[in-house]
Protein backbone atom coordinates (compact mmCIF):
# COMPACT_ATOMS: atom_id res chain seq x y z
CA UNK A 1 0.00 0.00 0.00
CA UNK A 2 1.40 3.41 -0.84
CA UNK A 3 2.49 5.30 2.26
CA UNK A 4 0.17 8.13 1.15
CA UNK A 5 -2.73 5.87 2.18
CA UNK A 6 -1.54 5.76 5.79
CA UNK A 7 -4.22 8.20 7.02
CA UNK A 8 -6.92 5.95 5.52
CA UNK A 9 -5.67 2.88 7.37
CA UNK A 10 -5.44 4.85 10.62
CA UNK A 11 -9.00 6.13 10.22
CA UNK A 12 -10.25 2.60 9.60
CA UNK A 13 -8.44 1.33 12.71
CA UNK A 14 -9.80 4.21 14.79
CA UNK A 15 -13.34 3.64 13.49
CA UNK A 16 -13.03 0.00 14.52
CA UNK A 17 -12.47 1.06 18.13
CA UNK A 18 -15.53 3.33 18.09
CA UNK A 19 -17.76 0.66 16.56
CA UNK A 20 -16.49 -1.92 19.07
CA UNK A 21 -17.46 0.43 21.92
CA UNK A 22 -20.94 0.94 20.47
CA UNK A 23 -21.47 -2.81 20.02
CA UNK A 24 -20.19 -3.47 23.54
CA UNK A 25 -22.71 -1.02 24.99
CA UNK A 26 -25.57 -2.59 23.03
CA UNK A 27 -24.64 -6.13 24.08
CA UNK A 28 -24.24 -5.13 27.70
CA UNK A 29 -27.75 -3.69 27.68
CA UNK A 30 -29.00 -7.02 26.30
CA UNK A 31 -27.21 -8.87 29.12
CA UNK A 32 -28.62 -6.54 31.81
CA UNK A 33 -32.15 -7.09 30.52
CA UNK A 34 -31.91 -10.87 30.33
CA UNK A 35 -29.30 -11.96 32.88
CA UNK A 36 -28.19 -14.54 30.30
CA UNK A 37 -24.67 -15.86 30.79
CA UNK A 38 -24.51 -16.58 27.05
CA UNK A 39 -25.20 -12.91 26.29
CA UNK A 40 -22.72 -11.96 29.00
CA UNK A 41 -20.07 -14.04 27.21
CA UNK A 42 -20.99 -12.31 23.98
CA UNK A 43 -20.52 -8.91 25.63
CA UNK A 44 -17.24 -10.01 27.17
CA UNK A 45 -15.88 -10.85 23.73
CA UNK A 46 -16.78 -7.31 22.65
CA UNK A 47 -14.50 -6.00 25.39
CA UNK A 48 -11.73 -7.94 23.70
CA UNK A 49 -12.76 -6.32 20.42
CA UNK A 50 -12.28 -2.88 21.96
CA UNK A 51 -8.82 -3.70 23.34
CA UNK A 52 -7.83 -5.44 20.10
CA UNK A 53 -9.00 -2.40 18.12
CA UNK A 54 -6.81 -0.12 20.23
CA UNK A 55 -3.82 -2.38 19.72
CA UNK A 56 -4.49 -2.54 15.98
CA UNK A 57 -4.65 1.27 15.85
CA UNK A 58 -1.28 1.48 17.60
CA UNK A 59 0.25 -1.14 15.28
CA UNK A 60 -1.03 0.50 12.10
CA UNK A 61 0.31 3.87 13.28
CA UNK A 62 3.75 2.39 14.02
CA UNK A 63 3.84 0.35 10.80
CA UNK A 64 3.58 3.51 8.67
CA UNK A 65 6.59 5.16 10.25
CA UNK A 66 9.33 5.64 7.63
CA UNK A 67 12.50 3.58 7.72
CA UNK A 68 15.26 4.95 9.97
CA UNK A 69 18.80 4.06 11.00
CA UNK A 70 17.60 1.53 13.56
CA UNK A 71 14.91 0.06 11.27
CA UNK A 72 16.26 0.30 7.68
CA UNK A 73 13.55 -2.05 6.37
CA UNK A 74 10.73 -0.04 7.93
CA UNK A 75 8.27 -0.85 10.73
CA UNK A 76 5.66 -2.91 8.86
CA UNK A 77 6.11 -5.97 11.09
CA UNK A 78 4.52 -4.07 13.97
CA UNK A 79 1.15 -5.27 12.68
CA UNK A 80 2.10 -8.88 13.34
CA UNK A 81 2.71 -8.10 17.00
CA UNK A 82 -0.77 -6.60 17.16
CA UNK A 83 -2.30 -9.76 15.74
CA UNK A 84 -0.37 -11.97 18.20
CA UNK A 85 -1.53 -9.87 21.18
CA UNK A 86 -5.08 -10.00 19.87
CA UNK A 87 -4.88 -13.78 19.71
CA UNK A 88 -3.73 -13.92 23.33
CA UNK A 89 -6.61 -11.66 24.38
CA UNK A 90 -9.06 -13.90 22.55
CA UNK A 91 -7.81 -16.91 24.51
CA UNK A 92 -8.09 -14.98 27.80
CA UNK A 93 -11.69 -14.00 26.99
CA UNK A 94 -12.54 -17.61 26.21
CA UNK A 95 -11.22 -18.77 29.59
CA UNK A 96 -13.26 -16.11 31.41
CA UNK A 97 -16.38 -17.17 29.51
CA UNK A 98 -15.82 -20.82 30.42
CA UNK A 99 -15.60 -19.82 34.07
CA UNK A 100 -18.94 -17.98 33.89
CA UNK A 101 -20.53 -20.83 31.94
CA UNK A 102 -19.49 -23.35 34.58
CA UNK A 103 -21.07 -21.27 37.36
CA UNK A 104 -24.32 -20.96 35.40
CA UNK A 105 -24.27 -24.68 34.66
CA UNK A 106 -24.11 -25.48 38.37
CA UNK A 107 -26.93 -23.03 39.12
CA UNK A 108 -29.17 -22.62 36.01
CA UNK A 109 -31.40 -19.55 36.03
CA UNK A 110 -34.33 -18.37 33.96
CA UNK A 111 -33.81 -15.74 31.26
CA UNK A 112 -35.60 -12.40 31.80
CA UNK A 113 -37.11 -10.30 28.97
CA UNK A 114 -35.83 -12.69 26.30
CA UNK A 115 -37.53 -11.00 23.33
CA UNK A 116 -36.22 -7.52 24.08
CA UNK A 117 -32.76 -8.82 24.93
CA UNK A 118 -32.44 -10.91 21.79
CA UNK A 119 -33.65 -8.09 19.54
CA UNK A 120 -31.08 -5.73 21.02
CA UNK A 121 -28.36 -8.35 20.66
CA UNK A 122 -29.42 -8.85 17.03
CA UNK A 123 -28.83 -5.17 16.27
CA UNK A 124 -25.28 -5.46 17.60
CA UNK A 125 -24.69 -8.59 15.50
CA UNK A 126 -25.80 -6.87 12.28
CA UNK A 127 -23.46 -3.92 12.96
CA UNK A 128 -20.59 -6.32 13.61
CA UNK A 129 -21.29 -8.36 10.46
CA UNK A 130 -21.20 -5.32 8.16
CA UNK A 131 -18.05 -3.95 9.75
CA UNK A 132 -16.25 -7.32 9.80
CA UNK A 133 -16.77 -7.81 6.05
CA UNK A 134 -15.40 -4.33 5.40
CA UNK A 135 -12.33 -4.87 7.63
CA UNK A 136 -11.47 -8.22 6.05
CA UNK A 137 -11.71 -6.80 2.54
CA UNK A 138 -9.73 -3.70 3.48
CA UNK A 139 -7.06 -5.73 5.27
CA UNK A 140 -6.60 -8.14 2.37
CA UNK A 141 -6.68 -5.43 -0.27
CA UNK A 142 -4.11 -3.28 1.54
CA UNK A 143 -2.07 -6.18 2.98
CA UNK A 144 -2.68 -5.11 6.59
CA UNK A 145 -2.41 -8.12 8.97
CA UNK A 146 -3.64 -6.10 11.97
CA UNK A 147 -6.82 -4.88 10.28
CA UNK A 148 -7.50 -8.25 8.63
CA UNK A 149 -7.06 -10.03 11.99
CA UNK A 150 -9.43 -7.56 13.61
CA UNK A 151 -12.00 -8.29 10.90
CA UNK A 152 -11.67 -12.06 11.29
CA UNK A 153 -12.07 -11.78 15.04
CA UNK A 154 -15.21 -9.66 14.69
CA UNK A 155 -16.60 -12.13 12.15
CA UNK A 156 -16.09 -14.90 14.72
CA UNK A 157 -18.07 -12.73 17.12
CA UNK A 158 -20.85 -12.54 14.52
CA UNK A 159 -20.98 -16.32 14.14
CA UNK A 160 -21.05 -16.95 17.87
CA UNK A 161 -23.63 -14.21 18.46
CA UNK A 162 -25.90 -15.75 15.85
CA UNK A 163 -25.57 -19.13 17.53
CA UNK A 164 -26.29 -17.61 20.93
CA UNK A 165 -29.45 -15.89 19.69
CA UNK A 166 -30.71 -19.07 18.05
CA UNK A 167 -29.96 -21.16 21.13
CA UNK A 168 -31.62 -18.71 23.49
CA UNK A 169 -34.73 -18.69 21.32
CA UNK A 170 -34.87 -22.46 21.71
CA UNK A 171 -34.19 -22.19 25.46
CA UNK A 172 -37.00 -19.64 25.84
CA UNK A 173 -39.51 -21.71 23.88
CA UNK A 174 -38.66 -24.99 25.61
CA UNK A 175 -37.76 -23.78 29.10
CA UNK A 176 -34.43 -25.61 28.95
CA UNK A 177 -32.38 -23.11 30.95
CA UNK A 178 -29.36 -25.43 30.81
CA UNK A 179 -28.90 -24.34 27.19
CA UNK A 180 -27.73 -20.90 28.34
CA UNK A 181 -24.42 -22.01 29.96
CA UNK A 182 -23.90 -24.68 27.29
CA UNK A 183 -24.13 -22.03 24.60
CA UNK A 184 -21.65 -19.88 26.50
CA UNK A 185 -19.22 -22.82 26.55
CA UNK A 186 -19.62 -23.29 22.78
CA UNK A 187 -18.90 -19.58 22.30
CA UNK A 188 -15.72 -19.95 24.37
CA UNK A 189 -14.47 -22.94 22.40
CA UNK A 190 -15.10 -21.15 19.12
CA UNK A 191 -13.19 -18.11 20.38
CA UNK A 192 -10.28 -20.34 21.40
CA UNK A 193 -10.12 -21.78 17.89
CA UNK A 194 -10.10 -18.32 16.31
CA UNK A 195 -7.44 -17.13 18.75
CA UNK A 196 -5.18 -20.02 17.77
CA UNK A 197 -5.63 -19.19 14.08
CA UNK A 198 -4.79 -15.51 14.60
CA UNK A 199 -1.63 -16.30 16.58
CA UNK A 200 -0.47 -18.97 14.10
CA UNK A 201 -0.86 -16.75 11.04
CA UNK A 202 0.90 -13.84 12.75
CA UNK A 203 3.83 -15.98 13.89
CA UNK A 204 4.26 -17.13 10.29
CA UNK A 205 4.67 -13.51 9.28
CA UNK A 206 7.20 -12.87 12.04
CA UNK A 207 9.17 -15.86 10.75
CA UNK A 208 9.46 -14.26 7.28
CA UNK A 209 7.00 -16.57 5.55
CA UNK A 210 7.22 -16.60 1.74
CA UNK A 211 4.40 -15.23 -0.40
CA UNK A 212 1.67 -17.67 -1.47
CA UNK A 213 2.12 -20.04 -4.43
CA UNK A 214 -0.14 -18.10 -6.82
CA UNK A 215 1.65 -14.81 -6.13
CA UNK A 216 5.05 -16.45 -6.60
CA UNK A 217 3.92 -17.84 -9.95
CA UNK A 218 2.98 -14.30 -11.01
CA UNK A 219 6.38 -13.05 -9.86
CA UNK A 220 8.14 -15.69 -11.95
CA UNK A 221 6.04 -14.95 -15.00
CA UNK A 222 6.62 -11.21 -14.67
CA UNK A 223 10.38 -11.64 -14.39
CA UNK A 224 10.46 -13.97 -17.37
CA UNK A 225 8.42 -11.60 -19.54
CA UNK A 226 10.63 -8.60 -18.73
CA UNK A 227 14.12 -10.12 -18.62
CA UNK A 228 14.94 -9.99 -22.33
CA UNK A 229 18.72 -9.98 -22.75
CA UNK A 230 19.39 -11.98 -19.58
CA UNK A 231 20.26 -15.66 -19.52
CA UNK A 232 18.86 -17.03 -16.30
CA UNK A 233 17.31 -16.27 -12.93
CA UNK A 234 18.00 -18.39 -9.87
CA UNK A 235 17.73 -18.32 -6.09
CA UNK A 236 14.40 -16.47 -6.11
CA UNK A 237 13.35 -15.66 -2.55
CA UNK A 238 10.34 -13.79 -1.22
CA UNK A 239 9.01 -12.75 2.17
CA UNK A 240 6.23 -10.69 3.66
CA UNK A 241 6.52 -8.12 6.43
CA UNK A 242 3.02 -6.82 6.99
CA UNK A 243 1.93 -5.04 3.82
CA UNK A 244 5.56 -4.92 2.55
CA UNK A 245 6.67 -7.59 0.08
CA UNK A 246 10.35 -8.33 -0.49
CA UNK A 247 11.53 -10.05 -3.69
CA UNK A 248 15.16 -11.06 -4.19
CA UNK A 249 16.89 -13.08 -6.92
CA UNK A 250 20.07 -13.51 -8.96
CA UNK A 251 20.03 -12.40 -12.61
CA UNK A 252 22.62 -13.98 -14.92
CA UNK A 253 23.66 -11.88 -17.93
CA UNK A 254 26.25 -12.38 -20.73
CA UNK A 255 29.75 -11.70 -19.48
CA UNK A 256 30.35 -9.02 -22.12
CA UNK A 257 27.18 -7.08 -21.29
CA UNK A 258 27.84 -3.56 -20.00
CA UNK A 259 26.79 -2.44 -16.57
CA UNK A 260 24.41 0.08 -18.16
CA UNK A 261 22.65 -2.60 -20.23
CA UNK A 262 22.27 -4.97 -17.28
CA UNK A 263 20.95 -2.08 -15.19
CA UNK A 264 18.27 -1.37 -17.79
CA UNK A 265 17.10 -4.99 -17.57
CA UNK A 266 16.94 -4.70 -13.78
CA UNK A 267 14.96 -1.47 -13.98
CA UNK A 268 12.49 -3.07 -16.41
CA UNK A 269 11.93 -6.08 -14.16
CA UNK A 270 11.67 -3.96 -11.01
CA UNK A 271 9.11 -1.61 -12.57
CA UNK A 272 6.98 -4.55 -13.73
CA UNK A 273 7.06 -6.22 -10.31
CA UNK A 274 6.15 -2.99 -8.51
CA UNK A 275 3.27 -2.49 -10.90
CA UNK A 276 2.07 -6.02 -10.14
CA UNK A 277 2.52 -5.67 -6.36
CA UNK A 278 2.29 -2.06 -5.22
CA UNK A 279 5.19 -1.11 -3.00
CA UNK A 280 7.15 -4.35 -3.59
CA UNK A 281 10.82 -4.03 -2.66
CA UNK A 282 12.99 -5.74 -5.24
CA UNK A 283 16.66 -6.66 -4.84
CA UNK A 284 18.47 -8.07 -7.89
CA UNK A 285 22.00 -9.53 -7.84
CA UNK A 286 23.55 -9.34 -11.31
CA UNK A 287 26.02 -12.12 -12.16
CA UNK A 288 28.08 -13.06 -15.25
CA UNK A 289 27.17 -16.13 -17.28
CA UNK A 290 29.78 -18.38 -15.63
CA UNK A 291 27.63 -18.16 -12.47
CA UNK A 292 24.66 -19.79 -14.21
CA UNK A 293 23.29 -22.81 -12.38
CA UNK A 294 21.26 -24.31 -15.22
CA UNK A 295 23.27 -24.12 -18.45
CA UNK A 296 21.08 -23.81 -21.52
CA UNK A 297 17.90 -23.05 -19.54
CA UNK A 298 16.29 -19.67 -20.41
CA UNK A 299 15.20 -17.15 -17.81
CA UNK A 300 13.03 -19.07 -15.33
TrEMBL record:
SUPFAM superfamilies reported for this sequence: Cation efflux protein cytoplasmic domain-like, Cation efflux protein transmembrane domain-like
rRNA processing as UniProt keyword: no
Keywords of this entry: Membrane, Transmembrane, Transmembrane helix, Transport
Subcellular location: Membrane
Segments traversing the membrane: 12-34, 46-66, 78-98, 118-137, 158-179
Domain Cation efflux protein transmembrane: from-to ranges: 15-207
Domain of life according to the entry: Bacteria
UniProt topology in membrane: Multi-pass membrane protein
Domain Cation efflux protein cytoplasmic stretches: 213-289
Similarity annotation: Belongs to the cation diffusion facilitator (CDF) transporter (TC 2.A.4) family.
Protein name: Cation transporter
Amino acid sequence: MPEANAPIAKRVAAASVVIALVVLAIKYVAYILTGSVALFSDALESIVNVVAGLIALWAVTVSYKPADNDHPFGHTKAEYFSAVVEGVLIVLAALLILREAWGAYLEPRAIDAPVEGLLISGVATVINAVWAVYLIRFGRGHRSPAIAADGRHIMTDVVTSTGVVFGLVVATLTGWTILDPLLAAVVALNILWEGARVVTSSLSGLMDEAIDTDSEAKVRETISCNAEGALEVHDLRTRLAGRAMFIEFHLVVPGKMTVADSHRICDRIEDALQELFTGARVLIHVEPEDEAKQTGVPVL
